[in-house]
Description:
3 helices
Amino acid sequence: MAFSVTDFRSKLTGGGALPTLFQVNIDNPVDPSADAITPFMVKAAQIPSSTLGLINIPYMGRKIKVKGDRTFDEPWTVTIINDEDNLVRNAVETWSNAINAHESNTLGFESTNPEEYKVQAQVHQYSKDGSILRTYNFVGMWPSEISTIELGWENNDTIEEFTVTFQYDYWEISAGGRTGQSTS
């Protein structure tokens, strides 16, 4: 079969998904005032990965491969724009401090139950018409690292930004506007 741009174009649904059309929602268990502004301040994120493990079973000099456990190896990192009220950064720092206080090395929640500081978050991937293609739900998520904000006199015409690295138990996909698919 000869190469055909028309055939390729006809198979590329919607002209391809764009990496710029996304939104992140994070439920902050300590300072929910930042929840409404966070979708506007998260400027970069990722669609998460997972790995399905492998078990080799030897049999008479040969190996049979069967599935192992699924792992979610990578932490999830988002890049956040900082505005002058530091609302999102303050909320994440307060959350982190409630998990383990800077000075006293104690938990700031009422109990030691991880469900108090672990939350859910979502990454929504949008189509060019504004409908949701897919939503990735992070379950059992909490901030493990808040990056520095680089300051410098030579940083003209820039806005402060920082990254937050989150640990999570797992992610799942919920149905989007076009896909109609759901996996759990």
